[in-house]
Amino acid sequence: MRNRLQTAFSGVHAEREIKERTLERIYAPAKRGKRRPLALAAACLALVLLCVGGGMFFTPVSAIGIEINPALQLKINRFDIVIGVKGLNQDGRRIAENTSVLFSEYSEAIDTLLNSSEIKDYLEQGKEMDIYVDCGDEQRCTRMLERVEGCVGGCGNVTCHAGNGHGHGNGQRRQQRHRNCHKNHQSE
After folding, report:
1. DSSP assignment letter at 126
2. Is the pTM of this model over 0.85?
3. CA 165 – CA 153 distance, rounded (Å)
4. Residue 90 has what DSSP assignment?
5. What is the pLDDT of residues 20-38, one digit of tens each?
6. Among 79, 47, 84, residue whose Cα is nearest residue 65
7. Mean pLDDT by 10 residues, the chain (188 residues)
8. Please, are residues 62 and 139 in contact by the beta-carbon 8 Å criterion?
9. Is 39 exposed, middle or buried (0-12, 13-18, 19+ CB in 10 A)?
């Protein structure tokens, strides 16, 4: 029986290309198995980087407070992006809800707020505006304060402050690091 099978198939020969494709298909699952741990490791690394980066992005390192009658607080991350907007009184909450400054650069956010109709109205009425920068890093506070002063350069009745603590509206901290950037525009 064996001889008859050998004789029957002795004339059948597969081309080399067919043999190679057949072997590739046989060994393909084993090769894919070798890539799977590498892909899993790459996915885990990407997840870790996403979590660490996301944690860094959504961690506030400083705050900017704006007080005129509406009182607002902007939470700023290490990349100078506004990651939180909080109205500290009823008018501040209304402005926070109606003004889109979340995830914008903090100087752009201040420009947007200063150009909002409500805050413009207060400034045109001659009301005093107090802007403070609050962070734990002295160099960062100085840099941020200079940028904030640049933002309010054309506004009237604005005083800028910086502090290196945490919190809101600590008068002692304001007196320690006070810079006056009054830009009183007097009627001619």
Report:
1. T
2. no
3. 25
4. H
5. 888 788 777 666 655 677 7
6. 84
7. 72 77 76 67 82 84 93 96 96 92 95 89 88 91 91 78 59 35 35
8. no
9. exposed
Contact 82, 74 (CB under 8 A): yes
pLDDT score, position 187: 35
Residues 6+ apart with CB under 8 A from 167: 134
Burial tier of 53 (Cβ tally within 10 Å: 0-12, 13-18, 19+)? exposed
Cα-only R_g, the chain = 33
Joined tokens for residue 5:
């099978």
The answer to whether the beta carbons of residues 76 and 62 sit under 8 Å apart is yes
168 three-class SS: coil
Distance CA 127, CA 118 (A): 12
pLDDT at 40: 79
Contact 183, 154 (CB under 8 A): yes
